[in-house]
Amino acid sequence: MQSAITASEDRMKKTVANLKDEFSSLRTGRASAALFDKIRVDYYGDKSPLSQVANISVPEARLIVIQPWDKAMIAEIEKAIRSSELSLNPSNDGKVIRISIPPLTEERRKELAKVAKNHAEQSRVAVRNIRRDGNDELKKLLKEGKLTEDEESRASEELQKVTDSYITKINQVLEEKEKEIMEV
Predict the structure, then answer these.
(1) 11 φ, ψ (degrees, to nearest 5)
(2) Alpha-carbon distance 80 to 99, whole Å?
């Protein structure tokens, strides 16, 4: 009984962590090295994460500096950034790439907020599906005679409380991200 609840809770934790990861790659008005987590660079025939071929730093709120470990990689890194969905315009001086993060337009802020809400809703659906799987597991244990009806009912209520707490966490994460997106 407790293992079904614990397993469900572990999966819910992963869902919230995944949502935070998704949100870290959503561009807001301020510079962040996490924006480049999903960018892959062609490194001698292999697609490597940008963070494995260059040092990414944020010296100012609206500036990102990317310093490749191999100077020959500058063109590849620039190409990967330009072709990404971040809509950024990198410039280089032969040694480092500088990216100025422009302030977001009101329209773009609303689009990003909508994308964030969509990610959050997918996470809420995932948490509810995990709850359903947990309840199915409890019903299976009841049929097998490993649980009484009272125990199954209590466990189901506990699972619902866990689900509610994770839905609340998702809503809090969304609220923080929306605040970050909408601030000028």
Answers:
(1) -65, -35
(2) 13
Structure token pair of residue 154: 């209590």
Rounded Cα distance between 169 and 163, Å, is: 10
With contact defined as beta carbons under 8 Å apart, do 43 and 54 qualify?
A: no
| Tens-place pLDDT, residues 159-169 | 999 999 999 99
Three-state secondary-structure class, residue 23? helix
Residue type, 129: N
Residue found under tokens 């707490």: 165
Structure tokens at 45: 């025939």
Residues 57, 99: contact at Cβ < 8 Å? no
CB-side exposure of 95: number of CA atoms within 13 Å?
A: 0
pLDDT digits (tens, 9 = 90+) for 59-85: 887 888 989 988 888 888 888 888 887
Structure-block tokens of residue 88: 């950024």
Q: 107 Cβ partners below 8 Å, 6+ apart? A: none
CB 50 within 8 A of CB 77: yes
pLDDT of residue 135: 93
Q: What is the DSSP string of 69-112?
A: SSGGGHHHHHHHHHHSTT----EE-SS-EEEE-PPPPHHHHHHH
